[in-house]
Amino acid sequence: MLKGREKINCSICNDRIGDFKYEAMPQWNISGFLCSKCYSKKISEYYIKQNPEEKKLK
Length: 58
Fold this sequence. Notes:
The protein is mostly helical and about 60 residues long. The protein has a domain at about 20-55. About 35% of the residues lie in helices and about 5% in strands. The chain has helices at about 35-50, 55, and strands at about 20-25, 35. It has a two-stranded antiparallel ribbon. The N and C termini lie far apart (about 50 Å). About 10% of the residues are buried.
């Protein structure tokens, strides 16, 4: 019995999530939790869309 520490999978890549799970931002329309890799990717995409000038600097 894994009370409080049940194993769950990432809503995007379906990999098993370890000890820390991330919640998706409401704007992403994703239900469930994300692994650190997918959360980092989505947060980067989100903020690049918010600040298009950042793309020009890269």
